[in-house]
Fold each of these.
Amino acid sequence: MMVLVNGIETDTLSVHDRGLHYGDGLFETISFINGQSLLWERHLNRLQRGCDLLTLPIPEITSLSEEASRVVVGAAQCVVKIILTRGIGGRGYRLPEDISTTRIVASYPWPSYPENYSTEGIITKICKTRIHANPQMAGLKHLNRLDNVMACQELDRPDITEGIMLDYHDHVIEGTMTNIYAVKDGKIRTPDLSQCGVAGVMRELIFEIADKLNIGYSVDGMSVDDLEQADEVFLSNSIIGIWPVRQIDEIRYAPGPVTLRLSEEVQRLTR
């Protein structure tokens, strides 16, 4: 593992950093294989959108690219995390007059998930912890992730791999670390994320693949009943690709043709 803070190899950060005090920042988690990420541009586009919304100066893209290349040297497959904070400045919530973005680029070992997660699927549960609505920041990967942290504490059996999170109106939103999709009669349905949740870059790629394969999809409100009545359910993020869901609480599913076809295409494009 290598960590760069503002281009310098170190694992220390000022205790006055606003990312620590207020969660004032953004992050991206990116898969790298043989020194490259096929989803790099998608991650950087979302990072740019987040910086624009938070009025956070984004570092030069060439600097981020060079630093990502440095931290992955010698790794055939690894995960790179980019964290941007508003740096040091001011006490209290009001933004400092002079903002100097802190950038952290770090590499981590590739997670060792069982191979059968991608073929046989995983067991999940509906979490009691709800996601708070915040339309202004919906879709972004900001540093305020306590809803997800609390929800993960509910995964109280070793065979439960992921938790599914709802908002306070009982709408299904996402997994603790994934986007969620239901398949009914050959068509994909995925939750509307205009109020909360993270709009994953893999979700964006799946939409494009569905168009290419002439698989219909819709983005709208989703309930637990919709999941229970689905023919197939699957999850995605940029590290795992696609995982079929074989169980949500007591409801069981089998990996279906739509899920497996999409998964094969995602693996072909990204691996």
Amino acid sequence: MVMGLSVQGVKIRRVYSDGREEHRDDEVAEDVPVCLFVNGEPYRTLIASPGMVEELAVGHLYTEGFISSLGEVVELAVKPNRVDVTLGREINTFETQMATYRLLTTACGEAPSGGSKLQRVSPGVGFDPTLIRTLIKALNDRSSVFKATGGTHSAILHAGSKDFFAEDVGRHNALDKVIGAGLMDGVDFSGCVLGSSGRLAGEMVLKAVRAGVPVVFSVSAPLLSGIRVAEGAGVTLVGFVRGNRMNVYTQP
């Protein structure tokens, strides 16, 4: 067990290009199904790393647009491989998922019906390359499961005086976990900076937009959809944060 995540030992046979073989002990990251139930109805099964499942559930519902605040959650019950979330209102999961589709396609230049509009993010904090370099170092230093297995992604949410960190087998899950942790801690997302080890596609940036995070960065690359969502929402998007350089793709 590393950093609250399960790392399992396995036996492997390593094969070299010169024909040599050797038997070795290795470690792999564990992934488990986490079934989310909303108001007693099955909503979605996430394949995730063990740990921080409450934060995952809350963060996922928040970044997917199902809830707009923690106050909408009446009860949260964690069971083996399952989280039951009770909201104080009825929700239509199909309509919410379609709204996400309309937001993404609108941001990418299409004009679907439904009147969805990408919200603008309040610029509570600006682009600070020194801070981003510090955070990417913290993200890399704390990614102990990745160092042991090579099988996880990481995310970090900088909220002024405190940072929230998560590792997960899924980059979306890691992002949901840190945003969920921030939401449960009552942070003001407009003053936050969000970092990821994974590529920044449109649906990843949209999670930050829904939370109201104005600066998003990654050690990896953005995709065109991520750049267009960032442009439409007024988010500063930074990629390839490595060593002494980084690429700024959008900046309001």
Amino acid sequence: MKVVTWNVNGIRARQAQVLELAEREQPDILCLQELKATPEQVPEALRNLAGYWCYWHGAVAYSGVGLHVRKERFPEAPEFSHPPFDHETRVVQAKLVSRTLGELVVASIYVPNGGKDFAAKLAFMSAMEGYVAAHHDAGRTLILCGDLNVTRTDRDVHPKECKPNAIGQRPDERALLERILGRGLTDVGRALDPDNDNLFTWWAPWRNLRQRNIGWRLDYVLASEIVAQRATSCPVLREFGSSDHGPVIATFRET
């Protein structure tokens, strides 16, 4: 099973690139963030992506998420919905039935940046912790994908970008991310590449920072332990597309 997550930074500007990514990678689950568009404004070629159950959840603002599930892998239509902590069209989830994983919940998540309302960001993340705990208590497995707007540790920020107490690097938001992980989730990218000090997913769009790989790791695939144990790869496509984020691609073996 292949899961792709990408903050597109404007779905209308990235239409051709999303189509290229879907065609090239053939993901079973495609999660998109920062659409900056209402569902009606999503380009027609993407709105009903061939071969996928599609759900768009957005508004004309710095938010919006999409979640797309391959029909060949999951023939039964998913139950798409928004969890209670959804804020500014930032979360969509799908309940799926997996032959090997049982009841599986996949979510595309775009955590608020926090620059304008940091308290709202902390509240959003606190609610995420309860969301994860509730699903695990109910016996479901989880795959949470998206731009979480937090670097886990200083190693997830290039040394030239480390800024003590900068939003995205603050101890309180990092502690919340660890609490979410502590509810039974694994950070798949870091688990598979534990010694990589250059594992970044976002680069500020100036001074050729992307080309020089001077970035932050903000985009994640988080999975319940039973899923994470099957992960075989989780690279970042730094050179793909014109968004300031790179797609993250997690692949899981069947058994």
